[in-house]
Amino acid sequence: MPKRKDIKKIMIIGSGPIIISQGCEFDYSGTQACKALKEEGYKVVLVNSNPATIMTDPEFADATYIEPVTPEFVEKIIAKERPDALLPTMGGQTGLNVAVAIAKKGVLKKYGVEMIGADRRAIEKAEDRHLFKKAMLKIGLDLPRSSNVKSKAGARKAVASLGLPIVIRPSFTLGGTGGGIAFNMQEFEDLISRGLECSMIHEVLLEESVIGWKEFELEVMRDRKDNVIIICSIENFDPMGVHTGDSITVAPAQTLTDVEYQNMRDAAIRAIREIGVDTGGCNVQFAINPKNGRMVIIEINPRVSRSSALASKATGFPIAKIAAKLAVGYTLDEIPNDITKETPASFEPVIDYCVVKIPRFTFEKFPGADPRLGTSMKSVGEAMAIGRTFKEALQKGLRSLEIKKSGLDSVVREKDFDTREHLMEHITQKLETPNDVRIFYIGDALRQGMPLEQIQSLTAIDAWFLENIRDIVDFEAILKNSKMTKELLRRAKELGFSDKQIAGLTNSTEDEITSLRSASGIVTTYKLVDTCAAEFEAYTPYFYSTYETEDEVRVSDKKKVMILGGGPNRIGQGIEFDYCCVHASFALKEIGCETIMVNCNPETVSTDYDTSDKLYFEPMTKEDVLNIISKEKPWGVIVQLGGQTPLNLTLSLQKAGVNIIGTSPESIDIAEDREKFKNMLDKLKLRQPPNGTARTFDEAKAVASRIGYPVLVRPSYVLGGRAMEIVYDEDTLEKFIVEASKVSGEHPILIDKFLEDAIEVDVDMIADGETFVVAGILEHIEEAGIHSGDSAMVLPPYSLGESVIDKIRQATVAMAKELKVVGLMNVQYAVRDNKVYILEVNPRASRTVPFVSKAIGVPLAKLAAKVMAGMKLKDLGFTKEIIPEYSSVKESVFPFNRFPGVDIMLGPEMKSTGEVMGIDEDFGRAYIKSQLAAGQNLPVKGNVFISVRDKDKRSIIFIAKRLFDLGFGVVATGGTAKALKKSGMEVRTLKKVYEGGPNILDYIKDGKINLIINTPSGRIPREDEVKIRSTAIMHGVPCITTISGAQASVNGIEVLLKKDLDVKSLQAYHSRK
After folding, report:
1. Which of 72, 414, 467, 500 has its CA 20 to 30 A from that of 53?
2. Does residue 85 surpass a pLDDT of 90?
3. Could you give the 3-state DSSP secondary structure of residue 838?
């Protein structure tokens, strides 16, 4: 069936900001879809609020709307653009939910827009638990026994017949939000309340527990001719009970018999037909009872999903691209496979290797968060590794996580336990309860001699996986107790052991093992990912390493540049750095360089098979990167675009003689080394807050007493404010010095005078060594002390005077000249009493580069890559700062709803998972758009609760008065109420939480509060404040914790009340330059 000619313009809905359970895999799928549809000659309209994505770059769609992904804004865009069709399956759950909402509202019918890719009926059949159950029973598929409920009373009735433990699954949510497993009635009551609130339709499915069953997924595609193919089977290492996004997963499935696999395959095909997905892909999840083989279907996602990204990268089959082409009428047999160029897309991929995906967690960012894993997803990213065996892929995957592990390392120190009994109790507890480090405890349990049967009984993990882990542990013992031979070393490498890991086991150094390996002729070989197990020739060079005899790399003699990616997503290092790496690849291809990408993140555009000339899917470690360099011998390597990960490899690469292009490693060192940096600023007569460095508590105490409290304590050479803290006294200092020392390692700890009430400013600039251009000056909306990755920012600045901005410009250029910057540089300033202080300089890409690029209409990362390759800014036509006439606001998005009870207060340690952009003619409009895009639904009526510290009481009066005048009721506790009443406002006074009821918690739970303004009483917050803020998050009440944030929010509410927000494409804004 040829492509449809009756549609000319297609709208794609993106997934919005990166949040837990909806990561950058949707940037990858959306980018592929935009490219595929434009390739076919369609006009593409895109809506997405996330500036950090490649898909929101203006060249990927004909009209790019960086607007909130909500039914109201999507309707405005449809009214303006009049698309013929809407493709909702590339934007995750957000895209589906918005599409269903506007379809129900009659918007699609009103404007004559057809939904393609999956129709509303198919979406509802898969997403609505009741309809899904009915459909599966109709075709004879087994499901867990279940009951749909819409009230607490109905839930209590259902649990009486289904029994405990019981699974709670809210309808129309993402990543298990609001769901969980209840083991007792108290947990059941809590989860039911949360689940009903989280569901878009206030419905919860109560399901018979299948905890401990084996979990599998099939990635399936179907076209209009009813051709159905299975792209990939995926097996969860962790059993049912752990969300698939938090589980280690393995492809292809390892423990199914052929009969079980064929039954599952047949069931998936019947299910996709019944649901009615006939123009794209979907993900089908199954559970199998290991005791009797009973198979039940768990769910179907009728869209591109997280697992689609994994299946695409695991097989080389571009699921999102093919799904987009199926949506416009093609059938699988008509679409060629890009990798083989000989076979059509209707050929099922075959893989002759093993792929392991391991989730990345950041519980250290959320003290007090429950690290136990369940049905609500908590991981923030993932790493993927490919090997010839599960053992090799697992070890490569573990060292890809960047959690200071070089493989299946031990995490238990025997000396920390007074008896063996206590040691075994600790290990048993870590095995019994799923958690982020359970894989390492399995290794330790085996090292301590725990029988395999006992480990299986505690974890319900299949014995096949445990036997493979035992093989790794057994070989460790051989390495420890044997003389190293060539055969032993080769076997270790085949089992995935890194040189560093072998060194630790044999009392030698990593460099010694590397030299021995080289002298013994044990070299890495690279294999192709080709979709067909080498049955046909592969044209797309996509490689993974192993230790065999045949090498499939074809080395060219072109000028080659290698780009080092950022590894797994985590808080502090996200998609923004992948964006920069992708741009570098596109730019260098344009000027005739062969581009080589190295990364291990399956969710990203950088690891797409057609982004670079060659892709190496490898861990971002010194050993793995140097192995590729020794094979490819690139002219230059770029380390300044992938965040801290590649920067940390700079010195090792330089020592190995690698040509690091761009700003020199010596300059990077001046910016990172406190003493050298201070000397540079003194030379330039620039000001920084009083500071010092320390390696011990005594040294830190001396620095703090010299410069005066409060002080900012932080490790050097880290990203995302890891272990960074504002300290007000000596007792607290000791605690944080210990924490910072753990993170800083051999590097010193930095101590700065903290400038209270200062305004922070971020500046991005680009230079070629001769021309220095300020790309953007961003004023933080929150006051100093909040990590720049968490603060809302506006470009151009909205309150700074021109003289201060000029000082900032001059200082930025002076430092860039002194550091001989070639490429990008980011500077963070604090402004207090019109004095400008330099906080830090990073001669690399920053997380604000994509945002600034979109705000000013200049692809900064692309220009930076060309400059690093030797071009000049004059030749590239960018020599002057662009100051837009419109306002752009960057706002952060936080995962607090995943961690009940955790305080939402922000500080110097970064906590956000993603960002959104609001863009409009003035600051108030841009700000409210950023809040709506971030899910902070500011109210236009109702009651506002105000409770602020003494220092803020004067400032809050004006804000409260504006809200009162807008018709809001004002509710406050004692001290704040007194201050507000004095200014003539009517205020309802509530008891403090510890004084009994009715108090603010009762009001929040009863839905009587619509907005909260609560500034903290001190650095260590009071318990009742934490309760107020975390209860607000769980009940969806916007909670503002800074005076500057409250002022901006009131401006935003005034804009909302006017009801005249409009939409405009990025291309339209940029055409005004």
Report:
1. 72
2. yes
3. strand
